[in-house]
What does this fold into?
Amino acid sequence: MNLVLLTAAGVGGATVFGALIGFIFKKLSHKFSDIVLSFAAGVMLAAAILGLVMPSLEYGGKFGIVITVAGIFAGALCLNLIDKLVPHLHKLVGGDSEQHNNANLSKVLLFVTAIAIHNLPEGIAAGVGFGSGNISQALIIAGGIALQNIPEGMVIIGPMLAAGVTQKKTFICAMLTGFVEVLGTLLGYFAVSMASAILPFALAFAGGTMLYVISDEMIPETHAHGSQRSATYALLIGFCIMLITDVVLG
It folds into this structure.
């Protein structure tokens, strides 16, 4: 349990760490951000497949393929629904200056809110990994998610500051997105620990949420600024590093 708590804190803290880097380097180039985010996408892709989808098939037994496919689509559809329900939060956070662009602020905060909401199932994915009892796979999943959270924390700082949000409120927003992930990790761990029968579906569900985020958000974002070739190789490098790690730890 101590390892789960430390991992939850590490996964959530990675966003805060990324935010601190973002404060230091407020104007990161699109190319650098795309490469880092693509690398994280590759890590998450490997973690989703090796740490969640494949174990789901293994634990599912006779109906493993049916349970896994159903879980993957359930996870993806859940995030699809969440995407449609993300609220506008500019009235809650707001900038202290009346000169900021409200439309731009709304867009930025929607992005931050989406990150926070998506962090919940990502945290659940980490927790489910520990609930499966395979510590090495769980650490790989958590490591992949944490690595992805660093560039997420980095990229939200600049746009929020530019939109008129104060440094204090910007940092608080970054901390809250990380805290959501801590809650998700604990939720996933306890849910699977108390009901091991749902483990195969829960693993596939968590894998589906990660695959959705990678395909729907991370890859399109990293291919939108003319750095798609570098982004593609960064993704492959991230995937292969996690693949090698899985083989070595396995």
The chain is about 85% helix and 0% strand. The CA atoms of residues 120 and 180 lie 6 Å apart.
